């Protein structure tokens, strides 16, 4: 391979993935140029399989040929590799610990709980709704009256959470759960985040997310008894227009 | 940061590997701290106050301010007391450390726990999973990110050594209690050598409980678990109460076992 070919930044991603969107937001905040590559999750590229051999998942950020995997690890990497601008974590070590704790909580809870909302039905869905509302209220409590989760500066926790807001429409349509009604204090925060170009350019149209969810639901109805099916096996059939480059 | 003027206290449980991670990091940094033992199934008011969301150990209190979740605590310790760093300085190397820490917590640990909590075919599958995970680490030591290193952190113990090491002693314990082979030195020579070197370190010896206490503890839980299971092919998941076959009278005991099992994972 020619020497120049490994230089630069490549993000292996999938358009609707909230985890991929975190990386896009972070790169945009830092004003860093990169090449976006859409992966077909049913037919993963050799580059993805080579870059993330352990999990074979997106997102993967490849920087000068070296892969970084897992979205929150990627976001922290981006912050540490470009320390001269737009810090994504606070300087104070206690505040950093709080940011990591809450980002990790979003990781542990939002995706799985949100997924249950559109996958399950009946009583199981009602239970899932209660669980999801609890998580929203926890986050609402932590945000309080602050501008962002970290205070005045947009940062790690905001980046971890905001992609899931593109799924709120789907949660309402599938589970009759209005995140805005259940956690009204998050509403101004969502609006504030969406006013940032890094966020508005990185998040998908909620209606497109809903179309995608409906597609997954149709495929999931082929699996019985409410067992959670794994979207990465089936999403290859639903493609979005490919972006070849993105400048934040 | 001045070690003498700040007050450090940490809440932990003696058999909990995440507690050992924090203790080891504090010892490596030469920090003075007060320790409070917590009952893993009956949290104290202090623990509930300082870890209200997860209600679990470990919880570190620095001048009264709590930090919870062991990986968060370890990085907090490293960034607050910057002598003897346990994380590398380079951003890419830091990302690698964080990746393998997640691997330890999300893949290897639960696989090891499943060996302990399952029987028959389920246990055999769990052992295979542990071997697959160890192969990944062995490969990194042989030809990947950690090639040629004595420890994952290089010449000295680093954060990933702490995370993997504080919990790897369960491998030997489970090998004896369950009579399975988990870390064959011929199959995993580098991992085996690393573990041996890790366990020889002075601070590690002072942190990890004596093996006979760990054996007794593990045997006790295994016995309780087997006596509660009404179906020998049931493989309850770590941390979650078993469903289906257990009677309602056993639910509380099963929950207790789930909580105890959680403390055993890497």
Brief overview, please?
The complex is a heterodimer of chains A (248) and B (266). Chain A has 11 helices and 4 strands, in the order βαβαββααααααααα. In chain A, α4 (93-119) runs antiparallel to α5 and α7 (168-175) crosses α11.
List keywords for this structure.
heterodimer; A: 248 residues; alpha+beta; four-stranded mixed β-sheet; 11 helices; 4 strands; 51% helix; globular; disordered C terminus; B: 266 residues; 6% strand; glutathione transferase activity (chain A); EC 2.5.1.18 (chain A); Probable glutathione S-transferase GSTU1 (chain A); transferase (chain A)
Tell me what you see in this structure.
The complex is a heterodimer of chains A (about 250) and B (about 270). Chain A is of the alpha+beta class. Helix content of chain A is about 50%, strand content about 5%. Chain A contains eleven helices and four strands, in the order E-H-E-H-E-E-H-H-H-H-H-H-H-H-H. Chain A has a four-stranded mixed β-sheet, with helices on one face. Residues about 230-248 of chain A have low confidence and may be disordered. By secondary structure, chain B is an alpha+beta fold. In chain B, about 55% of the residues lie in helices and about 5% in strands. Chain B is built from ten helices and four strands. In chain B, strands 2-1-3-4 form a four-stranded mixed β-sheet, covered by helices on one side. In chain B, helix 1 links the parallel strand 1 (about 10) and strand 2. Chain B is globular, with a radius of gyration of 19 Å. Residues about 230-250 of chain B have low confidence and may be disordered. The interface of A and B includes residues 68, 70 and 100 of A.
């Amino acid at each position: 391979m020619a020497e120049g070919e490994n230089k630069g930044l490549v993000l292996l991603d999938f358009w609707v993935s909230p985890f991929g969107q975190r990386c896009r937001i972070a790169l945009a905040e830092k004003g860093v140029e990169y090449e976006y590559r859409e992966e077909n999750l049913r037919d993963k590229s050799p580059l993805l399989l080579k870059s993330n051999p352990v999990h074979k998942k997106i997102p993967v950020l490849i920087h000068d040929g070296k892969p970084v995997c897992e979205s929150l690890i990627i976001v922290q990497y981006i912050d540490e590799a470009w320390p001269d601008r737009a810090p994504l974590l606070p300087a104070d070590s206690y505040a950093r610990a709080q940011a990591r704790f809450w980002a990790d909580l979003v990781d542990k809870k939002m995706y799985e709980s949100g997924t249950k909302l559109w996958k399950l039905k009946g009583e199981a869905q009602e239970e899932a709704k209660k669980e999801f509302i609890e998580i929203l209220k926890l986050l609402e409590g932590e945000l309080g009256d602050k501008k962002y989760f970290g205070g005045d500066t947009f940062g790690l926790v905001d980046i971890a959470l905001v992609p899931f807001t593109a799924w709120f429409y789907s949660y309402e349509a599938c589970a009759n759960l209005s995140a805005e009604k259940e956690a009204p204090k998050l509403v101004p925060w969502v609006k504030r985040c969406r006013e940032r170009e890094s966020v508005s350019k990185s998040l998908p149209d909620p209606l497109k997310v809903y179309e995608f969810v409906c597609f997954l639901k149709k495929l999931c109805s082929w699996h019985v008894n409410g067992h959670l099916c794994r979207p990465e096996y089936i999403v290859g059939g639903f493609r979005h227009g490919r972006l070849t480059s993105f400048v934040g | 940061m001045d070690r003498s003027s700040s007050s450090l206290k940490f809440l932990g449980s003696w058999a909990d590997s995440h507690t050992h991670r924090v203790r080891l990091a504090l010892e490596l940094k030469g920090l003075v701290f007060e320790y409070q033992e917590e009952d893993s199934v009956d949290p104290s008011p202090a623990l509930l106050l300082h870890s209200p969301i997860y209600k679990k150990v470990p919880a570190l209190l620095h001048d009264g301010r709590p930090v919870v979740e062991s990986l968060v605590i370890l990085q907090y310790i490293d960034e607050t007391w910057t002598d003897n760093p346990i994380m590398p300085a380079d951003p890419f190397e830091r990302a690698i450390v964080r990746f393998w820490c997640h691997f330890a917590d999300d893949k290897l640990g639960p696989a090891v726990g499943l060996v302990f909590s399952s029987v028959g075919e389920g246990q055999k599958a769990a052992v295979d999973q542990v071997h697959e995970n160890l192969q990944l680490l062995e490969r990194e030591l042989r030809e990947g990110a950690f090639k040629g290193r004595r420890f994952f952190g290089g010449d000295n113990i680093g954060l990933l050594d702490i995370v993997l090491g504080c919990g790897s002693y369960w491998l030997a314990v489970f090998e004896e209690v369950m009579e399975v082979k988990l870390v064959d030195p011929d199959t995993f020579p580098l991992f085996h050598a690393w573990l041996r070197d890790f366990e020889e370190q002075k601070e590690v010896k002072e942190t990890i409980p004596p093996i006979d206490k760990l054996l007794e503890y593990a045997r006790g839980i295994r016995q309780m678990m087997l006596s509660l299971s009404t179906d020998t092919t049931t493989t309850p998941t770590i941390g979650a109460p078993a469903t289906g076959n257990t009677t309602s009278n056993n639910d509380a005991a099963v929950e207790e076992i789930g909580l105890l099992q959680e403390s055993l994972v890497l």
